[in-house]
Specification:
about 250 residues, four-stranded mixed β-sheet
Length: about 250
């Protein structure tokens, strides 16, 4: 299909996009011999949403994806639907918004999004780079969280920070210089958190203007930074713990 921009692989990714309405779904392909309960439930959900489902030979799936990790389920989808910055966290009295900037590996990006979604983040901000070419990888690495978490686009992290600061949120970033331990910081407030990539981290100009710099304390002297996925999980779940939002 000419307007197909990505292929989502696997039942979890496809179901997340279907349930969230995060993008147009042109068609869902099920391998002809896939007759389990989950596939049948997905087909019913798709029918209710007006999304066509076709049972096809394995060769048809292989025309769209490489490898066998799809488990007999793929979807041809259109572009991700984004909301405005204003809409992110609008229904929360203390929004928790995250931005991942400079995370170049789609697997790391997806796994970090999974952590923030599981910990209760209200939304994420993305730079306008084209993630569509890696949407399938991101969705799979995030266990569908990249489709479920509301997302907005901002040209720069500074632009997003200015917006959320005007809304009364504290602008925070993960840093190691002149930073406080995240276990000593008050993370129960409305928060816009920027997490940089493992290689370059957060820019110095952003860190200098942040309201709060957070560092992750270690159990021994070790000069290397945590990878983005690990740092995201530590930050996300400490925010959740302080807010008392665990279920």
């Amino acid at each position: 299909m000419s307007d197909t921009q990505a292929v989502l692989e696997g039942l979890i990714s496809v179901r997340a996009a279907l349930q969230a309405g995060s993008r147009p779904i042109h068609v869902i392909y099920l391998r002809a011999d896939k007759r389990d309960r989950d596939a049948a439930q997905l087909a019913r959900e798709a029918q209710d949403a007006g999304v066509p489902v076709e049972r096809v030979p394995a060769a048809v799936l292989e025309q769209h994806v490489q490898g066998k990790t799809h488990g007999g389920v793929i979807a041809l989808v259109g572009p991700r639907r984004f909301v405005s910055l204003e809409a992110l966290g609008a229904d929360s009295d203390r929004p928790f918004i995250v931005m991942l900037d400079g995370v170049e590996d789609p697997y790391n990006f997806g796994q970090a999004v999974r952590a923030f979604y599981a910990a209760g983040a209200d939304g994420m901000v993305l730079r306008p780079r084209n993630w569509m070419s890696a949407a399938g990888i991101v969705a799979r690495a995030s266990a569908g969280a990249s489709e479920l978490l509301p997302a907005a686009v901002s040209e720069t992290a500074e632009e997003a920070a200015a917006h959320f600061r005007r809304r009364g949120l504290i602008v925070a970033c993960a840093d190691k210089d002149r930073a406080v331990s995240l276990y000593d910081a008050d993370l129960t407030v409305g928060l816009f958190l920027l997490v940089g990539g493992e290689k370059r981290g957060v820019t110095r100009s952003f860190a200098d203007r942040a309201d709060l710099r957070l560092r992750i304390p270690y159990g021994r002297r070790f000069p290397q930074a945590l990878d983005t996925t690990s740092a995201a999980a530590v930050l996300a779940f400490e925010i959740m713990r302080q807010r008392g939002t665990m279920i």
